[in-house]
Amino acid sequence: MSNSVLFGVLGGMGPLATLDLLQKIIEITPAKRDQEHLPVVTWNVPQIPDRQKAYAGTGDSPLPELLHAIEQLNKLNVSYIAIPCNTVHYWYPQLAQASKASILHIVDIATEYIASLQPRPKKVGIIATKVTLDTGMYQQRLAKLGIEAIILSEHELNELFIPGCYAVKRGENVLGGELFQELATALIDRGAEKLILGCTEIPVALKTIDSPLLSLSIDPAYALAEHCVKLWQQAQGTEQLVID
Description:
The chain folds into two domains: 7-105 and 222-242, Rossmann fold, CATH 3.40.50; 107-220, Rossmann fold, CATH 3.40.50.1860. It is built from eleven helices and eight strands. The chain has helices at 15-28, 51-56, 63-75, 92-98, 106-115, 130-134, 137-144, 154-169, 173-189, 202-208, 220-236; strands at residues 7-11, 40-44, 80-82, 102-103, 123-127, 148-151, 194-197, 217-218. One of its GO terms (molecular function) is amino-acid racemase activity.
């Protein structure tokens, strides 16, 4: 390649979320020909152990497989690594320490997007895994912006979120979308002005049912894709594009 910037995607968590990120990168990129698109290599290995089960103590840790993936991407001399999975950022410190390439932090990037909103919302609902919620990845960052976080109850996690998440993983996107829409409606009813879709399979499911609540949603995967495109533009010296 004539340009030294190469993006790596650590995917497989799940496969649809990985494909969704790649699709968003392609759609956002203002390319007129193949050669103007981002160069991306993808490690799409769904056999990485389940992150939710690992956190709950009922499954193997994904960390060894994640570190192996980081090692393989680094062997390809990638410049940046994007991970289209919010939950796996629980292990971000270990991954960042092991990687020569910069690992883009999806939660940081999504929060920066929220900070840029005008007007900035006062209350934001978070739909995410128990791991993401328990560790306060979003809540802590939102608090620094003066934004109140509205999160799922244990009942909502167990009866709606988890079934919705695993519905998408087995290809039942309509069922997943219906369950996620019920969660989104509940958070809006509790005062949320915007919704963080803090699991990368949620936007896929809501898009499947053409949910009207997507208009109120903040998609961290889209923010991550946008960030990758901006990094690519900087490397190419074509930063003039303003992405809506």
